[in-house]
Amino acid sequence: MCDNNTNDEDWDQPKDMYACILTADEFERASAIDHIVTTLKDMATAALRGGNNKVLEFVATHGALILQYSKQCPFKDISDAFSELLSWLRGTCLLEIEAMLCDDSDSNSECSEPDETTKKSDTYIINDTSVRQTNPETRSDSSGHSHGSGKPLQSPCSQFIDSSELDPLLTTEPVVQKLFQGAFISEGEVPNWIRIASLKPEVATKIHRAWTTMMSIGPLPEIHRWYIAKMTATLCKSEYWITRTEIGLCRAGGLETNPKLQAFSSFNVRLATSPWQISSADLDELAKSGWTVSEMVQGIAIAANMLGFCSFGKGSGVLLEGAKCRPGPRMCRPASTDDVTDMLSALNNTNLPECIAPGSTPVETFHRLVDEEDDYLGGDTLNGSEENLPQHHPNARNQLFGYHDIRFKGFRPRGEEKTSPFLRLADYNWKDDACCVVEQLSSGQLAKQLDEVFSTVVTMTDNDIFGNVTNIDTSKLRRMVWFYVHNLYGIQADDMEYNNINSLVGIKKPGVIGLKKYIKFVGCETGEITHTEYYFDNTYTQPFSSKDKVHICLLAAEARTQAALIYGMRAVGKFVSKSG
Predict the structure, then answer these.
(1) pLDDT value at position 540?
(2) 3-class DSSP state for residue 125?
(3) What is the pTM of this model?
(4) How far is it, in rounded angstroms, from Cα 556 to Cα 488?
């Protein structure tokens, strides 16, 4: 709760001032809101007396948060109070707050039409100084959209998914509302990745809970947790998660490098690109740098989950908060009934072709699944050549962690003789083995939460597909996505019908990027996804809905996370047995 005796001078950082409203307790929040609003009014009044420089300083320090809490908040009491504060500021000739921030290309606000009392003149007087102010009725953004029409300017969350398909922040849907409010309390905002993942709120809630747990408790210092998260995001070339982890790292105290973290950086490359090669010898190196076993478990869990976050982010086209680009249009192509008909037929278990002969060896199965789409597109890169893959993060970030052009290696490239053996889930799996390592050596709470994420993402269903095909069992498709990603990482299940995978997610036509290629890119590759990959279903008479694709992204992302955890915890178990 806010200390009402705190001096304004003590609040040099806005986060310290506003932190006390980030609570689920309605009475504590009401008291905090009242105190903050009163304080802001006093500060604004003092700024007006101090001249334009003080006004601009007030705007720079508090304007963005005032707008954010008035327009982008899942708590109605906070939104209402800050909306009233904004109206009060307009009435005291501080209309610059909204004008400056609405015109800022990095604004995270929604700008609406001012009330009648603020429309009378384009010029406002502050301490005898004339300040020219653009009339809100004619103010436009760079795309030519007027901000004075009474319609809020919605900052998009995804370059592919229109904001109208997502729940509003003040939603009345109980599960989504709880998700948004929980995110706001823990992070001070509702991040765009949560807005997108809320299309599947049950699993999004569990993912956010597990992430909050591993970043809040455990043997690793907070700054080390965020450092590991940031180095993983950098390795994945995810601009969105690089930025978000940079924010977390700054809040934790800034950048810190030491031999301990540098040792994990080398380990992290293997975890992200070839986790099947991780052995107890890798953990010997971490131990020499001062890592305890419990720290290893937490570090691996953070890195594995960030790999999943980066996969989901690129697969769903998540944008940085405040981005103003609009979701691109779906490209028009001639429709074909073959893909939809074949998939529905496969889901109903009829006319399944024998794509993979019964009794195939694990190696034959792997190459049959992995090589087929590469034959169509000419190589292992998604767009056919290395130069087509975008490079988003600055060189300084690469040099900081020693990462250059590091990419997913592929479990067993054809022609290589010395390769790692396949991992059979009957011998080592998440539920019976890796989860127990996390529980025993780190946190029982975290192990339980991660287990809930994995079980929920695979089992949850609306019993529909393509948005309008209802009362259909999609369990086969969900399992195929999950085990296909596992197969890419050298993990195979004895009871899995791998011959069905190509029937459900395989490419049907040469030169066409299909669902299987999309899954492979989301689950393995680095870089960003393009409209070509995301709209792979343009040839379908009934394209996947945004909810379908978010579920597919979540499946591929969490399968990648679990694969990294399985290999990582297997190595930890061997390390402990050898050391003990």
Answers:
(1) 72
(2) strand
(3) 0.78
(4) 11
